[in-house]
Amino acid sequence: MISKEEETSKLMQAFLTDDELALVVRSHIKVEEQLDHVLLLNVEEHKYLDKIKLEFSEKVLLAAALGMDEDLIRPLSVLGNIRNKFAHKTDSELTKSDVNNLYSAFTAQGKEVLQKTIKHNPDRPPQLALKYGDLSVKEKFVLMTIFLHSSLRGIVHDEVERMQAVINEDSGVAGGDE
Would you say which domain of life the source belongs to (predicted)? Predict the structure, then answer.
C-alpha cells in the first residue's frame, strides 16, 4: 500500500500539471473515492449502499450522520459545487471567487492547518510559495483538495485501525502478538 506521503506527493504533482477542467474533475474523483471508503467502513451492508446511487452532496451528509467530522461538511459541499460548475459547462474557469469560497468553508482550525502545511511541509514542490496568499488560484485549490483528501484518508485509516483492534481483541490477540 502506498504511504500517505507518497500519495499526497503524487496527487500534488498530477494536479499541478492538469488543466483546470482535469484538475477539478480529477481532484473531486480522488476526494469522492475517500468519501466512499468512509461510507463503506461505516455501514453493515454495502450492497444496499451501492444500490442507493447517492449524489456527492448526499454522501457528504450521510458520512456526517455516520460520524465524519462536521468541519468537513462545508468544504466538501463547496468542492462539489465547483465540480458541478465544471461538469455542466466545460469552458468554466477556476476563479478566485471559487477558491475564496472553498477557503472560507474551512473552520479557523482548518485554515491554520492549511497555512502551516504550505510553510512546513518537506514534500512541498519547490516552486510553491511559502505563504497561502502568494499561491496562485490553482495552487490554492490543489492545496485545499489535497487537505480534504488527506483528512478523509485519515478517517479511513483510523477506522481500519479501530476495526483491526476489535478483530484482534475478539480473537484474543493483544497488540498484534499471538
Answer: Bacteria
